[in-house]
């Protein structure tokens, strides 16, 4: 894990998602298929009751929790609720797999270097919820996928892995996002497994793979 400590046993993780959950699916599949993965899903948490990610979790026999953002007075209270649920199911790390809510600083304090996010751009470029559209609008010829530890800022924190994707002449947001997701689905399980097996060490802002 980050920070140089060695994890012992199987790491219980909560997966957080707001949408389709294709990344949730590949992570659930990878953890189920590989006895040496080093992590197990203890819950899928969503801010949206209609998130298809929840169906995927149920189909995999993983418990689900819906935490409705509108039910809380502010982000801080929502963050406390998410962290409380995650802790109550025994999660020791949070995996943000298309979770479209920003968690407040309390989450980073409670899960320091134990929150991992995937973002469909090469950070620090194109932070935010419209990364694919923003990359197209900027006219970049190369974009990509980033997996990173979460710090107090949005789409920010030590970068664990990145992979470039070329923007084609006729790309629109849907076609580009589809190719980005192919990369996501390969990269995310690799990163989570490395994290779970204690192969990621944080040195300042740099993540070393060992
Ligand atoms: C992914 O592209 C991820 O990078 C972004 O949200 C999307 C979620 O897709 N943060 P899915 O729900 O996993 O299919």
Describe the structure concisely.
The protein has helices at 22-33, 52-59, 75-88, 105-110, 131-138, 173-196; strands at 11-16, 39-46, 64-66, 93-96, 115-119, 142-149, 159-166, 200-203, 206-209.
Question: What's the number of extended β-strand segments?
Answer: 9
- Tell me the overall shape: globular
Main sheet overview: 7 strands, mixed
User: How are the strands of the largest sheet arranged?
Assistant: 3-2-1-4-5-6-7
Give Rg in angstroms: 16 Å
Averaging pLDDT over every residue, what do you get? 96
SSE ordering: EHEHEHEHEHEEHEE
The structural class is alpha/beta
- With helices defined by DSSP (H or I, 4 residues minimum), what is the helix count? 6
Beta-strand percentage range: 15-25%
Explain what the structure shows.
There is one protein chain. With 210 residues, the chain is α/β, with parallel strands linked by helices. The chain has helices at 22-33, 52-59, 75-88, 105-110, 131-138, 173-196, and strands spanning 11-16, 39-46, 64-66, 93-96, 115-119, 142-149, 159-166, 200-203, 206-209. The strands form 2 sheets. A 7-stranded mixed sheet has the order 3-2-1-4-5-6-7, with helices on both faces. The longest helix is centred in the C-terminal third of the chain and has 24 residues, at 173-196. Bound molecules: 5-O-phosphono-beta-D-ribofuranosylamine (GRF). 5-O-phosphono-beta-D-ribofuranosylamine (GRF) binds at residues 17, 19-23, 97-98, 118-120, 181, 184.
């Amino acid at each position: 894990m980050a920070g140089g400590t060695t994890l012992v046993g199987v790491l219980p993780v909560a997966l957080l998602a707001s949408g389709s959950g294709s990344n949730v699916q590949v992570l659930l599949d990878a953890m189920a298929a590989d006895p040496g993965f080093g992590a197990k899903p203890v819950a899928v948490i969503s801010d949206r009751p209609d998130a298809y990610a929840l169906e995927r979790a149920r189909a995999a026999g993983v418990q689900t929790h819906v935490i409705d953002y509108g039910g809380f007075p502010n982000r801080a209270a929502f963050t406390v609720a998410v962290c409380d649920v995650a802790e109550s199911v025994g999660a020791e790390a949070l995996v943000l797999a298309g979770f479209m809510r920003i968690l407040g600083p309390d989450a980073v304090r409670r899960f320091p270097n134990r929150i991992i996010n995937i973002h469909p751009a090469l950070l620090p470029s194109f932070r935010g919820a419209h990364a694919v559209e923003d990359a197209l609008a900027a006219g970049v010829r190369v974009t990509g996928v980033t997996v990173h530890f979460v710090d107090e800022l949005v789409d920010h924190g030590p970068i664990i892995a990145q992979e470039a994707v070329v923007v084609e002449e006729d790309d629109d947001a849907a076609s580009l996002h589809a190719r980005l997701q192919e990369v996501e689905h390969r990269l995310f399980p690799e990163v989570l497994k490395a994290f779970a097996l204690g192969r990621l060490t944080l040195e300042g802002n740099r993540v070393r793979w060992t």
